[in-house]
Amino acid sequence: MPTPALTLGGVNAPASYGTSVNRAPKVRKTEYGDGYEHVMPTGINADPFRAQVIFGPLTDDEYLELEEFFTSRAGVELFSWIPPFYDDPIYCRCSEWDAEYREANNSQITAMIYQVFDPV
To answer: Are the C-beta atoms of residues 79 and 89 closer than 8 Å to each other?
Structure first.
């Protein structure tokens, strides 16, 4: 079964201005008494992409499409998405999102999207 892609209207769902990316590489650190420390990554995938992604303003149809996309995956199923400034898609999960319905055809969804390295 192919991995579903996060799209709106058949194209990559674009992030809006205000999207914030959090980078926190996973490292293993050993400190010694003389101030020296040895730091190394915890594996080959030690720096996953994590972001609070804003999608909006959205029309009512786009809002329903995006809400259904996240709801149907229920924070479990992974999907592919091309983040801003990336050329290739990454595999992600979204286990938390907030929806803001402002008025007709003016909604916003803010999603916590994080990269996963599960084999597909």
So the answer is: no
CA torsion angle for 77, 98, 86, 40 (degrees, to 10)? -70
- For 45-59, what is each residue's pLDDT tens digit? 999 999 999 999 999
pTM of the model: 0.83
The total number of structural domains in the chain stands at 1
Residue 103: give the domain boundaries.
54-120
Residue 7 maps to a domain: no
CA–CA gap between residue 104 and residue 61 (Å, rounded): 10
Report the C-alpha gap between 21 and 91 in whole angstroms. Answer: 16
Q: 78 lies in a domain?
A: yes
Tell me: cis bond preceding 57? Omega within 30 of 0 counts: yes
Q: In sequence order, what are the residues at sequence separation of 6 or more whose Cβ sits closer than 8 angstroms to the Cβ of residue 58?
A: 8, 66, 105, 106, 107, 108, 109
CB distance 78 to 3 below 8 Å: yes
Q: How do residues 2-27 score in pLDDT, each as one tens digit?
A: 678 888 877 888 888 888 998 889 99
